[in-house]
Amino acid sequence: MSDRAGTSDDAAQPWGAGTWTAAPADVRGDGDDLLVTAVEGSDAWRHTSYGFVHDSAHALLAPLADPGAVEVTFDLDYDQQFDQAGLVLRADAETWVKAGVEFADGAPSVGAVVTLGRSDWSVAPVPAWAGRRVTVRASRSGDAVTVRARVDDEPFQLVRVAPFPAGTPLQAGPYCCAPTRAGLVVRFRRWTTGPADAALH
């Protein structure tokens, strides 16, 4: 299952299918791609360790089937502290998952923040992914979300299996934010949705 690349039933979502949770500084098309400029200070976090609540990340969301999966591809060409991009699953302000690649402490790291009232954060450094194309996939089924990621056409790696309230309607799609600086521009290449993954492994 680790090399799963979606299924033939996955469908490309037009960028216009989603609604922004918080408006970016700029959004423009470039061929089939979407270029998103983040607002300085944009972020998503609730309470844990830092003591603050931030809910200003730029997430382009549309309803996701339950069970169902969402996949987002973007270029990892950013290198400033806490720059990040990937995907979001969101039920409400206190119930969400963000997964992708965040630049922290001198290197890009793949990981996920799972928020059920309070946030947690799991990361793993992936310095070899810098400057390459990343795909993040989240599959929701039952009481869990499974997050996988890969670079270019390499096999998917398991990032996280996390609890998520069963039966809760949610929206999903690409996101980015720039907690510490202005000028982050993320090139999103693709956004698809489809059936949930058939198995964990």
Automatic annotation (TrEMBL):
Source domain of life: Bacteria
Pfam families with a match to the protein in the record: DUF1349
InterPro entries the record matches: ConA-like_dom_sf, DUF1349
Disordered as annotated region, ranges: 1-24
Coiled-coil zones: none
UniProt-recorded name of the protein: DUF1349 domain-containing protein
Source organism of this protein record: Modestobacter muralis
